[in-house]
Amino acid sequence: xxxxxxxxxxxxxxxxxxxxxxxxxxxxxxxxxxxxxxxxxxxxxxxxxxxxxxxxxxxxxxxxxxxxxxxxxxxxxxxxxxxxxxxxxxxxxxxxxxxxxxxxxxxxxxxxxxxxxxxxxxxxxxxxxxxxxxxxxxxxxxxxxxxxxxxxxxxxxxxxxxxxxxxxxxxxxxxxxxxxxxxxxxxxxxxxxxxxxxxxxxxxxxxxxxxxxxxxxxxxxxxxxxxxxxxxxxxxxxxxxxxxxxxxxxxxxxxxxxxxxxxxxxxxxxxxxxxxxxxxxxxxxxxxxxxxxxxxxxxxxxxxxxxxxxxxxxxxxxxxxxxxxxxxxxxxxxxxxxxxxxxxxx
Length: 346
Ligand code: PMP
Hints:
Number of helices: 12
Strand content: 5-15%
Order of helices and strands: HEHEHEHEHEHEHEHEHEHHEH
Structural class: alpha/beta
Distance between the termini: 49 Å
Low-confidence stretches: none
Strand order of the largest sheet: 1-2-10-7-8-9
Radius of gyration: 20 Å
Helix content: 25-40%
Mean pLDDT: 97
Bound molecules: 4'-deoxy-4'-aminopyridoxal-5'-phosphate
């Protein structure tokens, strides 16, 4: 691997990992792009970098400038790290329901955190609207520019995946990829990656795995952005409306994946393959397995391993929390060791 010129250059080129059990169970080759290995620990480092570099090119940010974003956390972490490396400050507006681990990481990156109540998008005080208003007001006093990254509407988000994720998957599979599937937060990953892969291979199958309580399953399966019943503990995914990023995008296969299906996949990946992943990766891998069963054996299917499980220790890996959601608790999380350390001096 060549020397990288700082973290900005170290984003991307993540390993594409064969998921052994998912592959064995379906007869397909299911590959996961290890996005948790990015410097900020998630898939959102890619758009974080792209949105800042493009704003620089447009002259919107000068040294000492300010980056503002509304985010469930990971985009904020990516933005904060890139901003630090490029000489900008960061203000993040985050719903207070997001995991403590992500908020802690943002703070330790030096981002200023504005926690707001989690309200529906239709509410004028939803975090996305609060972030935009905050950026607009700060623009009046900031002399070196304010970038409101605006990941749901900023096409530099999907461009990040068109110029990096897509080409990497194509190269790493040597063009032997039959399908790509992932879940949707902003849709940047699916829109950018599928646009690139379709240019290379017209008939590649593009799938969406949607958690309960979001609208992407109904949008792509039935043409109407209607929320499905229930909810999900997966953070960072679950879009409820059509945004400029996904407008006009077509999807070949859409799956509604419940937490009851996805959470055991997360625990299996950890117990049997040593992959410690967050909730959206479980939705993605479960979706890839459904797609594999639909397509039949022998296909190569790529999905995204979006972030580390440690980011959700207090939820996804917390027996009490899991029980409160009627989700299974893996035995090892409750194990207390009975081993007595064999000290030399007893
Ligand atoms: N998984 C996680 C953990 C995320 O934070 C995000 C982004 N919010 C996604 C998946 C979805 O990515 P995208 O915004 O590109 O749809």
